[in-house]
Design a protein that fits this description.
seven-stranded mixed sheet, 5 helices, 200 residues, single chain, two-stranded antiparallel ribbon, 28% helix, alpha/beta
Amino acid sequence: MNDQYYTREPGSESRPEECRFSFRGHDLVFTTDAGVFSRGELDTGTRLLLEALPENLSGEVLDMGCGWGAIGVSVAVTRPEAKVTMTDVNLRALDWSRKNAEKNGAKVTCLESDGFSALGGKMFDAVITNPPIRAGKQVIYRMFAEAADHLNPGGMLFLVIRKQQGAESCMKYLQTIFSSVEKLDRSGGFWVIGAGKEDQ
C-alpha cells in the first residue's frame, strides 16, 4: 500500500517505531508510524526548520500538518508559555501527536483540519509547517495564503522546502502576500523561509 501521508485514514498497517532527538537542551521521545510522514526519524527538513525557529516564540503557535508531532511538541516543551495548536488531515498522525505530547509533558491542542478549515477565525502569532509538497503547488500555496490571513500583526510563517522542489518560486509567491520574506537557513538542499506581516 503506497499511502500518501496527507491521506485522512492511511490504509497501511500500523508499524510503530520510536524516534528520539534533543532540542534546545531537552531530550524528546516520539512514536512514529507507517502512513505518517518520516517514520522512524526526524527528517532533515524538519530538523533544519526547528533549528531556525526563534528561541523567543510565544503567543498562539500553529504547527500545520503536524505529522507525529515533532515541531509542535518541541516548541511546547521548550516554550511552555506558548499556546500550541497542532493540526493534520491524517487521523493516525493526530493520534500519535496527542500521545507524543503527553509522553513529553507538552500541553498542546490537536485538531483534525485541512489547512485552516477547522480553525474558524482563530489568529496566530506564528504558523510553522513542513508543507506536503507532493500534494501539489496549488494545495501548499493555498495553505500559505490562508496562513497570511490567520496571522496577527507582526506574526510570522515559518516553512521549509527543498530547493529542487520549488523553493525559489515559492519565495517569489510569498513575496506577493507577505510584507517581508527572508531565508533563515539554506543548507542540505533545503531553504528555511520566514515570512512576516507588518505590525499595525
